[in-house]
Amino acid sequence: MQDWMKLAGIRSSDITDEAVFRQRRTLLQAAAAAGMTGAIATDSFAMTEKLSMDVAETQYKAEGEITSEETATSYNNFYELGTDKGDPLKNAKFLKTDPWSVTVDGECDAPGTFTLEDILKPHAIEERVYRLRCVEAWSMVIPWNGFPLADLLKRFKPNSKAKYVAFETVSSQKLPGMRSRVLDWPYREGLRIDEAMHPLSFMAIGMYGNVIPNQNGAPMRLVLPWKYGFKSIKSIVKISFTEEQPQTSWNMSAPHEYGFFSNVNPNVSHPRWSQAKERKLVGDAGGLSALFASKTETAYLNGYAEEVGNLYADMDLKKFF
Ligand code: MTE
Fold first, then answer.
1. Among 190, 191, 196, 187, residue whose Cα is nearest residue 169
2. d(CA 96, ligand 1 centre) in Å
3. Cα 222 to ligand 1 centre (Å)
4. Where are the domains of the chain?
5. Which residues line ligand 1 (CB under 6 A)?
6. What's domain 56-312's superfamily in CATH?
């Protein structure tokens, strides 16, 4: 058991023996291959590492069917663990999250390197059901467990020059997907400080009441529900307060396709496809092939315009995409 789990209130009795869990997973995959999903799948996920802390419910609840945990944890984008949707689950074991530390630097009065325990200790954990819309035009509805990003950032006392916040994913470990040059590692993301401090911005350490699995960005990742999914950077090891707009991985790799803001916007197409509609990932993936619902309209700011629309009120969104 990792120490931070104790801090987060997770009891070791809540953690399934890994061998049992793996065995169940194998069973599940075998069942999926045979076209038998359902009872076994549900049972398998009841066996994951429960967050037994009091998780407070909040007003953040998305409408619509919740994506199954099975799907959300087996159909992933985490290029450090491979580019196929099933690779992150398959390669999850290569990501080592204990020990874990996060370095905070740049324009702030309380920088430093903090253990995961230091980071998590003062935060009460809440559950937020958020829609997440991927730039590839699929979406999910997921109950996340974590705390507001602003509560964390304020602890480092950003100064008046801190106009942006930059984030980096772990790159010191030789993860299998990093042999490919598909992106320039480490994976980088950034937000304007007002976006980062907005109450919707969330740091997740769990999902579905379970400790966040490696393939979903353990031990902590951002969730920014009004932006395309790639802004929600996983497995964070560095946070920097900057005066200049930081570089971001997808913008560096294809600047005409992926802007810095990357707000969900059905009126601004990706150069190679429309963003007007999406397919929701719903039922049991039954292994690695996900089930998609029929297409629905995508909402401006992914339906969060009332909350965050004012952040972009005076901007030309075709230019600042
Ligand atoms: N973070 C890192 N470090 N590496 C990645 O490849 N993929 C992004 C984002 N965060 C990615 C990442 C993309 S494209 C999406 S859609 C979301 O993670 C997917 O999160 P999920 O797998 O938990 O659904």
1. 187
2. 17
3. 10
4. 56-312
5. 76-80, 134, 169, 187, 216-217, 229-230, 232-235
6. Oxidoreductase, molybdopterin-binding domain (3.90.420.10)
